[in-house]
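Practice problem: predict the structure.
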Amino acid sequence: MIKVFNISKIIRLVLLAILILLIINTIFIYSRLTVEVVNQKKLLPIYCVDRDDKKIALTFDAAWGNDDTKELLSILKRFNAKATFFLVGFWVEKYPEDVKNIFSQGHEIGSHSDKHLHMSRLSEAEIIRDIKSYEEKIMRIIHKRPVIFRPPYGDYNNTLIRTLSSLGYYVIQWDVDSLDWKDLSAQEIAQRVLKRVKSGSIVLFHNNAENTKFALPIILSSLSKQGYQFVTVSELIYKDGYYIDHQGVQRKIER
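Answer:
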């Protein structure tokens, strides 16, 4: 009886030791995975640029509709302002003459994707196919490849930013949202922008929002009087020797 009891006790101790080892191993593996996830840096697009020369970039996303594009271009010309238009592939196909007109007036054309999908849901291969499809369409019209990209819905992840960077693009968001797509009044749109804008800002508008064409002259007039200059996104951002901080501000690396 004593021998049986001792053997049984030994077995229980061995099993307990194995269980403890399994628990320790599981905790170790989980801890490593947790550290890896925490240490995986979240990549950010450029929301605005750290500069103090009163240069800002006005941007217009164009995906749905085209009623106001010509009027917006006329207003920009009146104030000698350059802007950036982020166009979607199917918009480019539908309005090629307006694409030419935007480009011929000295404005920048960026990519807003080919099909206006949620890019964070796509694989790297799917992202590349979408970007290349857009490039083919825009190249046929203006013979110039875009170097800036704005993700539809402001939706991005690390895969998107890495993939676009590998293709030679700068991924662009905004720090001033006019909310013109909510059909705010011209005064409300203007007040939102004028209250938030600063040197290095990237301002978001849409080419076919109801009251953008009425708000734009108010904004351009006020900011012009304050000494602001309206440049394209590519003229605003730094092309090299920069980093993007945790708030999406692009900053020059001090040497």
